[in-house]
Amino acid sequence: MAPYWYWRQLKSDWAQDESTSNRFTLPEQGALSGLYFDIRPYLTLGLDNVDNPWPLQRMDLRIVGNGNYEIANLRGRQLEAINFWDSGMMMPTQLTGWSGNSIYQEAIIPFGRYLGDPKYGLWLEKFAAGVEFEETNSFSTTYYTDAYSKMNVWGLFRKNPEASLFSGGFMRKRQIINKDTASESQYAVKLPTDNKLKQIHLFSESDLSSGLESNGVFTTAQKIWLSIKSREEYLIDNQMALYWGPFMHQMYGRQAERIITQGETEYNPCRVDTGIYWNENVQANTIHASHGFCAIGATPWQTRVNQVYVFSTAGSAAQRTFMLRSSGKCLNGDIPLLLQDPKTSDEADWLDAAANKDVYVEVTEGASAGNWYIVLDELEKMYPS
Q: What is the pTM of this model?
């Protein structure tokens, strides 16, 4: 029979226990291109003034083979940003934030360059002790109704696979550092890999308190170096993150856009977290006759949290309903470092860590609050023994 792709549902309405780890074992065999999942918490209270309100902001995700081999290990918000970087489009999530409703987000974990990639993917039977999916969350029962957070998980499998399927290996995505900023100058991180690197994602995030950011994303990670050959040769040399992040997104046409609706019993004002750090167009459109506008701080082009004031002349709940549209770059503080077209590049174009020896990322911190992270999107040709 001819080969074909098919979706297999691995979990249906899988309940996520709050503030703990939830896991299940993938099938023992199969040619797996990637996973797709959605998460749907149910709101007890409105999220209009909650820091990190969306479920992907509160999730860590791992795919582990043989009990300890990390195929994927990253934060949900990092996966969301990488999905956007790879595809050029944001998922059509319904980000509603008022009580008595479910909110909804979705993401994919590809083991190739994209779902359905015939060259790169995962053979499950090559992990003798199996492969496990794990999510760890910090869902608050104050805001999410206990035991009502549900997840669906599907796998894209190949039936009657060709002999050459996944001959190139599989893609790993893993966070290798979580650095608490301390105003350090040129902090160096040696990348722990000899694999080819499709992309190096530098995530820069400021601390939040009541919707207020401690500093701008380009202050947390202020200057960037990328070097090979034990820092003898520099691919990025003392570049300002303020320029590099927007430049990379502009070069490859990565414009993020998020539309969020709020309403009914929302407060005035409220703060809405869009996750988009470099804002180019932010506006609040009232659905009814009331007046609404955004006030997004002293550096509006460098904040992901928009403060929205909504006024109603009649005072009815319906007239407090509005829609926020936010567009820009650097979703969730993502600053990709490698000049690789995410849609067309192949491993011949990727940075070969083994051939170039001792790859370093160095960052100057312009603040003493916030964190920055490095996530590798790397090619693995060998399965663990």
A: 0.94
